[in-house]
Design brief:
Strand order of the largest sheet: 2-3-1-4-5
Distance between the termini: 12 Å
Number of domains: 1
GO molecular function, one term: DNA helicase activity
Pfam family, one: Macro
Number of strands: 5
Number of helices: 4
Helix content: 25-40%
Strand content: 15-25%
Order of helices and strands: EHHEEHEHE
CATH topology: Leucine Aminopeptidase, subunit E, domain 1
CATH architecture: 3-Layer(aba) Sandwich
Keywords: ATP-binding, Nucleotide-binding
Largest sheet: 5 strands, mixed
Shape: globular
Protein name: Macro domain-containing protein
Family: Belongs to the SNF2/RAD54 helicase family.
């Protein structure tokens, strides 16, 4: 769907899911994360506080959550190894699958739909067909209403 994932469509509770790197650095300098950080700085600050409390640092497969509005939460999925230019793909499919299972469980518990950008295909360098298949298998086929947004060109 073409649109802005930060303005998710539909009724009821919503979870906005996106991918972040496994480094304890202030993310949000590029891609979707920068839009999220600019539009909802309190969510970014909450994530930073939560992440700093974890002495072992960010681990692939973890999901951190935050609240944007009464019925809109965000799931920060740690599924990318490192940041910046790389000769190898940074998104880790196994970590993404683990994160999606956790997001699915959160969605089912709260009756929420899931909304996300095309995760992992920008800075993560992943193959969208593989990511799309994971989303289909883990979320959609398990009964979670899911919308993937693309920005208008």
């Amino acid at each position: 769907m073409t649109g802005d994932v930060l303005a998710p469509r539909g009724e009821g509770p919503k979870i906005i899911a996106h991918v972040i790197p496994d480094l304890n650095v202030p993310w949000g300098g590029a891609g979707f994360a920068s839009s999220l950080r600019r539009k909802h700085p309190a969510v970014w600050e909450q994530f930073q506080a939560d992440a700093l409390r974890k002495s072992q640092g960010l681990q692939l497969g973890q999901v951190y959550t935050g609240q944007i509005a009464e019925q809109v939460s965000v799931a920060h999925m740690v599924a990318q190894h490192g940041i910046g230019q790389s000769k190898t793909q940074r998104l880790r499919y196994a970590a993404l699958a683990d994160c999606l299972v956790k997001v699915r469980d959160l969605a089912k518990e709260s009756g929420a739909s899931v909304h996300m950008p095309r995760v992992g295909t920008g800075h993560g360098g992943a193959n969208w067909d593989i990511v799309k298949e994971l989303i289909q298998e883990v979320l959609v086929d398990r009964g979670v209403a899911t919308t993937v947004y693309m920005l208008p060109r």
